[in-house]
Amino acid sequence: MFAKACPSRHTLEHVTGRWGGLTMGVLVDGPLRFNELRRRVDGISEKMLSQTLQALERDGLVHREAQPTNPPRVDYSLTPLGRETAERLLALIHHLEARMPEVLEAQQAYDTR
Amino acid sequence: MFAKACPSRHTLEHVTGRWGGLTMGVLVDGPLRFNELRRRVDGISEKMLSQTLQALERDGLVHREAQPTNPPRVDYSLTPLGRETAERLLALIHHLEARMPEVLEAQQAYDTR
DNA sequence: CTGTATCCCGATCGATACTG
DNA sequence: CAGTATCGATCGGGATACAG
C-alpha cells in the first residue's frame, strides 16, 4: 500500500490532489460543461481544469462527451467508478467539515503553545 | 464546500496531500517513533516527514509525545479524530486499489486512442 | 465555447550538512 | 535519535495569447 512505485498512488494523487477532488465533488450533482465547471470550482484556472479533467478521464473516473456542433459543447460526467470514488471522497470531506470546530480549537492550542 | 477561502480546504490538503495520507495510514496500526515512520513511509525525506507531522499535529489529527530521556524518544500516534479521519481516507484508498484493474484498463484505452 | 501553447514566477521538495 | 538549516533543482500553476 505504501510502496513508492505502487500505481494506485498516481490515481490517488489525481483524486486527492488540489483540484481533482473538488472537480469530482461538483460533478456528483450531475453532468456539467467546461465553463460551468470552471465557475463552480472556485479558483481553478482553465489550464488546471483541462489538465485535471484529462487525468480523471484517463483514469476512467470521468466521462467526456463532445457534441460535434458549432459552437462546440462538451459534457463531463462521473463514470460509475468515478461516482463510487467520489462518494468515499465526500465522506472524508464531510467528516472533516463537521469536525472543523475541533480542528480549529486544536490549531489555537498549538499556536499559543 | 468549494469556496476558496474555506478553512477546511487547508486541513483537507494536509490529509490528502502527498505525504499526509500515507503518514496517517501507517499510524493506524499503532504509535511509531520518528525514524520508524521514516522507514515505513516509502520515499519520504526527513524534512517532509517533520513538516507533515507538524501540520497534522497542529490540526489535532496526530499526537506527539516526547520523552525527556537521552537519547530522545518521541512517539507519534493518531488522536481519536485522526483515527476517524484515517478510516475514511483508507476506505477511499482501498476502494481505489481494489479497482485498479479497471483504472489500468481505462488508461490503456485512453492511450491507444 | 472549448480548449491548447507558452512564458514565468514562486512554492515545493530532496540532498546534504549540522545541532541538541 | 530527533530533528533544523540551507541550498538548488524541479514543478505546479497563473496569466496571457492563440486555435478550432
UniProtKB/TrEMBL annotation, chains A, B:
InterPro entries found in the cross-reference section: HTH_HxlR, WH-like_DNA-bd_sf, WH_DNA-bd_sf
Taxonomy, superkingdom: Bacteria
Keywords: DNA-binding, Transcription, Transcription regulation
GO MF term set: DNA binding
PROSITE patterns reported in the protein's UniProt record: HTH_HXLR (PS51118)
Boundaries of every HTH hxlR-type domain copy: 6-104
Full protein name: Transcriptional regulator, HxlR family
Organism from which the protein derives: Lentzea xinjiangensis
